[in-house]
Design brief:
Layout lengths: L7 E5 L8 H6 L5 E6 L16 E5 L11 H13 L3 E6 L5 H4 L21
Parallel strand pairs: 1-2, 2-3, 3-4
Length: about 120
């Protein structure tokens, strides 16, 4: 399979038990590799972000949405900062996700990877 520079590839990781998917992503020759950690339904303690460009975190939304703890999100954000991986916080989730907002520790987190070869002059 030939991966052109405009293809981004990601895997979903919801909790500690699903982190093994990240190793499969590392084997892919995509230009940008990202984790969609949504819905975050459990704590992730040791997140190895080697060769991962971007992490998106969000809570579950809609009827029956399971709660997401702030300390889970903060722990992931801190791991991203330590390992120099872009961090994007999408939403708190819940039945009314817009009402719950996107602020984490008083600010929005909208980091995204930028690849020079994708920027048009």
């Amino acid at each position: 399979l030939s991966w052109t520079k405009n293809i981004w590839m990601g895997v979903t990781v919801e909790n500690e038990e699903s982190t093994s998917r990240i190793d499969f992503l590392r084997d892919v020759d995509a230009n940008v590799k990202f984790l969609s950690i949504e819905p975050l339904i459990g704590e992730i303690n040791n997140l190895n972000l080697e060769n991962i460009d971007w992490v998106i975190v969000g809570g579950e939304s809609g009827p029956g949405a399971r709660p997401m703890k702030e300390e889970w999100v903060v722990k992931i954000k801190e791991q991203c900062l330590t390992q120099k991986t872009h961090f994007f916080f999408k939403q708190w989730g819940g039945v009314n996700k817009k009402k719950n907002g996107r602020l984490l520790e008083g600010q929005t987190w909208d980091e995204m990877p930028i690849r020079e070869e994708l920027i048009l002059n």
